[in-house]
Specification:
By secondary structure, this protein is an all-alpha fold. The chain has helices at about 5-30, 35-50, 60-75, 95-105, 110-120, 120-145, 150-160, 165-175, 180-205, 210-235, 240-265, 270-300, 305-315, 320-330, 335-360, and strands at about 85, 85-90. It has 2 domains: about 1-85; about 85-360, Up-down Bundle (Na+/H+ antiporter like fold), CATH 1.20.1530.20. A two-stranded antiparallel sheet has the order 1-2.
Length: about 375
């Protein structure tokens, strides 16, 4: 039997297993026996994730399905994700974010920052679009849908944060301008200590108290210092210890997953009240960001590759940073909900958009 046939057989096995898990979950839910239903829902998402990993077209959605599996556990069994012994799991969020930002720094180099000086136009347009479109979108949606103040502030906070790391991966898959993507992500991140608190005070100051200088320092601690440490690591160490280079992406993905499930468990009650509406709003915010980012870049007469890049840089936010800031405010269960929902949403939509663009080769 050929390797292709074996792979297809294993994929079918996982699809069948997923179907059995889903059938069992629906059956128990109808009967009202929810104490075990969460495990079946988790099994469904994990089985589907394994099946997707064997498809070149669907592979990009595999990690998001793992997130859904973890979130399912957090919703059904929140106690597992609140505290282990005397350790509150929420206390791990900031260190994990710093590790993720350090990982971002290790992927950058001084040479890439020199690109900013040589070709600044595309980067300036990307930054301008990012820090205008997404904050205004967040404010507009939070106002129109009349969320409770702290949850509305979370929606605005997501829009005021810099580009997310996932945008670089999606730009690569979308056949976009990867160098521009990395540059916009890096510069928007470096500007975040100033622009994020300023925009939050301007747009969300009436919803929650925004302490400008403490937020500046929080962003410096969470983002800037770890990235600088990562840059130093890249310059002196990267490539000499292959195990570290391979481990960083895995650690980053595991960290993102843990952050999301802890926020989900902490804010479970609020999420159950506004969950569907919040999912809808984050979806609109995300997809509208892609759309306005792309067409804004077209108005500035950028190339097709650059338009794709700006679209992804605008639509994909650093929801992890927003979660960390919500934690430092002491409002993880409310302000932190929108970032927790936005993260998986943008991974699904970003993967779909990148795969669609991948099939449309730029001549």
């Amino acid at each position: 039997m050929s390797d292709t046939a074996i792979s297809k057989m294993k994929s079918n096995y996982f699809y069948l297993t997923a179907l059995l898990f889903l059938s069992g979950y629906i059956y128990l839910s109808v009967l009202g026996k929810l104490s075990f239903a969460g495990w079946l829902l988790t099994g469904f998402f994990l089985s589907l994730s394994f099946a997707f990993r064997r498809s070149s077209f669907l592979k990009g959605f595999s990690f998001t399905l793992v997130i859904f599996a973890a979130v399912s556990l957090a919703l059904y069994y929140p106690g597992y994700f609140l505290q282990v012994g005397s350790l509150k799991l929420s206390s791990l969020i900031l260190p994990l974010l710093q590790i993720i930002m350090f990982g971002m720094g290790t992927e950058l180099s001084i040479k890439q920052f020199m690109t900013v000086l040589k070709k600044p136009r595309g980067i300036l347009i990307g930054i301008l679009c990012h820090y205008t479109i997404m904050p205004v979108l967040g404010f507009t949606l939070a106002t129109v849908f009349s969320f409770p103040k702290e949850i509305a502030a979370g929606i605005i906070l997501v829009g005021c944060c810099p580009s997310g790391l996932a945008s670089n991966v999606m730009s690569f898959l979308a056949r976009a301008n990867l160098a521009l993507s990395v540059s916009v992500t890096a510069v928007s991140t470096l500007l975040a200590p100033f622009l994020t608190p300023m925009l939050m005070r301007l747009l969300g100051g009436e919803l929650i108290e925004i302490q400008f200088w403490p937020m500046v320092w929080d962003i410096v601690k969470i983002v800037i210092l770890p990235i600088l440490a990562g840059l130093i690591f890249h310059y002196f160490v990267r490539g000499r210890f292959s195990i570290i280079d391979k481990a960083m992406p895995i650690i980053s993905m595991a960290g993102i997953a843990l952050i999301i499930v802890v926020i989900t468990a902490t804010g479970r009650e609020s999420l159950l009240q506004v969950g569907l509406k919040l999912i809808l709003v984050t979806f609109i915010q995300n997809v509208t960001g892609y759309t306005l980012g792309y067409w804004s870049a077209r108005l500035f007469k950028l190339s097709e590759k650059d338009c794709r890049t700006v679209s992804l840089e605008v639509g994909m936010q650093n929801s992890g940073l927003a979660s960390g800031l919500a934690l430092t405010m002491g409002k993880l269960a409310t302000v932190g909900l929108a970032p927790a929902v936005f993260g998986p949403t943008m991974n699904i939509t970003g993967s779909a958009l990148a795969n669609w663009w991948h099939r449309k080769v730029v001549l």
